[in-house]
Amino acid sequence: MTTSITQTQPAAASSRDALLSELAAVLDPAGLQTGDAIETRFRKDWYAPLDPVPPIAVARPRNTAEVSAVLAICHRHRQAVVPQGGLTGLAGAATPAGGELVLSLERMRGVEEIDDQAGTMTVMAGTTLQAAQEAARAAEWLLPVDLGARGSCQIGGNIATNAGGNRVIRYGMMRDQVLGLEAVLADGTVLTSLNKMLKNNAGYDLRQLFIGSEGTLGVITRAVLKLAPLPASTQTALCALSRYEDVVQLLRHAQRKLAGRLSAFEVMWADFYELVTTRVSGVRAPLPAGHPFYVLLDLQGDDAGQDAPAFESMLETAMDAGLIQDAAVATSDKEAQSFWQLRDAVAEFPVMWAPNAAFDVSLPIGRIGEFAQALRAAVLDRWSTAELVNFGHVGDSNLHVSVYLPGVALPDFPEHEISEVVYRVVQDFGGSISAEHGIGTHKKPFLGCSRTPEELAVMRLLKRTLDPNHILCPGRVVDLEVVDLD
Question: Would I find Transcription regulation among this entry's keywords (predicted)?
């Protein structure tokens, strides 16, 4: 099934000149890049096409008023706009297509307030996640969302993509940290609801329209984030297990025994563990290879004197029950970081396994092991020499899969065909094609695998209502066509 929606067309040259003249009038000299002055970094996000094209211009507003002015002008001229944050996205949403204008939030940086009584932070959208984390830590609070791109990704982009990361099992997705938002609609209308209250049922919760919408419904400019108490103690262990059923039992066992203090539960299949410990420089193997599964888990608590014994007791009882075959417990922060290097080694895949097709899916936790087996069989049935690795958060139902075809280089690498195979299996298992990376352009053709026609129709209705001229991120998420593999 294919559904189409009319897309905004590139502006004619005369209209473009008028557009740029109006933009220059509302922005300072550093706020608008055109022609040869456009920096190449604005051409693509992390997931990029082979030949990225330059935008017609880059607008770099300093505040919400300037964002509003820019969008009002673009709305009037029917000029397509793609908002950009830290350009760390993996779904292509921030990569400009031909004739689009980039709206960069990078100059809108800073933590405006940390309210110690409310336990909140008010922050501008262009602030990097790491800067916000450090500001919270300096005030003896924790901003819980954490991901590998923390030094580059921005708060606005984290919210627009509903970022996840390693601590979701305890603290939830980015959505769970957002109490209030300020966003600008396609026509320049500013919606300001910088709420600090956990409870606020005064009508529709409009912030939810923008969280996870990938810039298609509005541009986030400021946010109020919920903070958590700063942990005083961290315990880390790497465990080896024999069966996926034991992985699930260990997860539930740890959650019961640690009483809400389990903050990470990362699972690595044997193929992933062997690959990163033998091929990635600087990554050591704390446990011998050969076990079917490896689990990296963290406890974060407020009392080291109680947390360490509780963590060790949890591991001991799991070993006595036969769930864990072997384990290594970190005895220092440095050793804990070395354990995490195993999981973070995935950042090397684009270099050592190029090209590869990477997938971010979610499944019911109890079926992830079965899914991984079915997926391997389906891929190998199509490409007998393919290599696959599986790893993921699992405790929050998220699995990452990478597929590599030895000897196949670009442009012959069949990424779309691999995606068809993977997403068909995801659909068969009732999963989601995107756990935390978003849809963008990369996954848009397969959205029908995880969403019903009725859900897609409501998404399009929201898009038409909030962006009638289809200027915000045209062609992303639901804007053009969605294909159901059936």
Answer: no
